[in-house]
Design goal:
Elements (H helix, E strand, L loop, with lengths): L1 E4 L2 E4 L4 E2 H7 L7 E5 L2 E2 L9 E2 L4 E6 L5
Parallel strand pairs: 1-7
Antiparallel strand pairs: 1-2, 3-6, 4-5, 4-7
């Protein structure tokens, strides 16, 4: 399955949820915001939200500072 992750091509085998993707890219448990096709995916829905061919995913890590 071909996806776009943060503007870059990303290949994945078989069905994949947002939570699976975060685990693969080392972001599971890291505070971040996830958007799929310009729609925010709430944290509680990440294990259920399945990704499909051609989806565009943006993962933004939250950083504090000032």
């Amino acid at each position: 399955m071909k996806l776009t992750l943060n503007g870059q091509a990303f290949e994945a085998d078989g069905p994949l949820t947002v939570q699976d993707l975060l685990r693969r890219i080392g972001r599971e448990g890291v505070p971040c915001a996830v958007e799929v096709n310009q729609s925010l995916v709430p944290h509680r829905q990440r294990a259920e939200r399945t990704l499909g061919e051609g989806d565009r995913i943006e993962v933004v890590t939250l950083v504090g500072g000032g």
